[in-house]
Amino acid sequence: MRRFVQRARQLRKQQTDAEAVLWRAVRNRSLARWKFRRQHVVDRFIVDFICLDARLIVEVDGATHSMDSELAYDAERTHILESCGFHVLRITNAEILANIDDVMETILAELEHRAFL
To answer: Where's the DUF559 domain (predicted)?
Structure first.
């Protein structure tokens, strides 16, 4: 577990441009008062963003996530995270950098949906 925490800290320091943009948009309960954490350990994975109250994970996917091997890994990872009781929402770097407002609307809609489950 300690190695996961150390790796999560390292990832927070080395975030991508898209992760930085999304973090600025969701940190400090700025999205309808929902609390997000970044680079949080769930099971054996470090997820990009998580809202524990809504059991929502937001994964930010870069260009490498379009290769067959990565898609298979992402599908397995999503399956495991969902078996832990979370819903996984995947958003690409391009979507975040091109239109953060639409991304925020998508995340908020998912949060509101999850609030009633």
So the answer is: 5-112
